[in-house]
Amino acid sequence: MSTLPTTFRFHLNPYVYPVVKNDNVLLLNTKNMNAIIFNQKEQCARLMERLLEPASFGVLEFSSDSYKYSYCKDYIDKICDLNMGVLTRVRRGMKRPAVLTPYLVRMHSTTKDDLRKPGSNITLVINEDCPQDCSLCSKYFTQFKCCTRTEGGAVMDPQLIMDLLQDVSGTQSFVINICGGDITLHPRFPEIVTTLSESSIRCRYHLHYKNCINGIEKMVKPRDTVVIIDFPIDKQVSFSPLEDYTYNFIITSPEDLESCRKYVQDNEIINFYISIANTGPHTDFLKEHVFLLQDDLACGCGLLSFNERVRIVNNHYFYRTFILPNGDVYGSFDAPAVANMYRNPISYVKDTINLFHTELWNKTWDSSVCSNCLFKYICPL
What we know:
Layout: E1 7-12, E2 16-21, E3 24-29, E4 34-38, H1 42-52, E5 60-63, H2 67-81, E6 85-89, E7 121-125, H3 137-143, H4 158-168, E8 175-179, H5 189-197, E9 202-208, H6 216-219, E10 225-229, E11 246-251, H7 254-267, E12 272-276, H8 283-289, H9 306-313, E13 321-323, E14 328-330, E15 339-340, H10 346-365, H11 368-371
Parallel strand pairs: 7-8, 7-13, 8-9, 9-10, 10-11, 11-12
Antiparallel strand pairs: 1-5, 1-6, 2-3, 3-4, 13-14, 14-15
């Protein structure tokens, strides 16, 4: 009598950072700074690539009689023996592991010649008005790129945007993010879109799904639109996913993560990433399941506060510049404005914000852990 095959689930521990290049794999344990390297191991590299695909949500399933499992079992066993991964036999009623890999939140390795540069990522908050009343709006905005509703009704002068574009034209690897309340309520929004579309600068428009109404795709190309979705989704809102949208899912709890996975699966969404929001009740979940948020990290990042690490995970910490409707320029919402676009010359604004970014970067990396780290040139921070 033949034995029925067993189903296994495999995932990396949340404190492990994976790097895959060609047929080579490096796994770094940020708890103790130990590493495991697989050189010229094609099957292991393909295994890690599948694991890091956003659609996998950090978990792979294998049948014990599958060729994929037999090819990769030795690598999986070695990873688990070093406490860098977990292989679990699936039993009836068992919940899927909650795992958020660095790649789900768009933390990617750099190379020595590809380090981020000051001032290369700007978020323009073009207005404050929004018809929605999201209770967590202000918390979201300080932790990742998001829409935000504030009182006052201020709007950004399109001339400011034109002046900015003129100054950065021809700059490589430059990104402008357009945020606000409901950005379509800016009285000169079509003019702003036209101005930005005529530029060579890469632009992304961030809209909450409740404000992503029918017809928005006629104003902004779907491929330039980032739709922000938090959970649970309001079923009374008439929102239709489009293929070319990029989706920014907000995760605060294990329930959010499972809802997100099902939404991606049911709607066959390909282009998406996740932002982590610490709202208070589920801090322990974030610490247990999200890369870089564990206590007692040996990595130099462990010297930073939990809230700072949340922003790092969300790519909202280093080299990010924010310009509000009143022209105030920020490098961080934990610090005062460093300049004002309406009152200060553009040269002063650039020098001041670049100095802010450089000092923050140097201060963070000015630890013996970072300066002596063998992996500093592939660090995702």
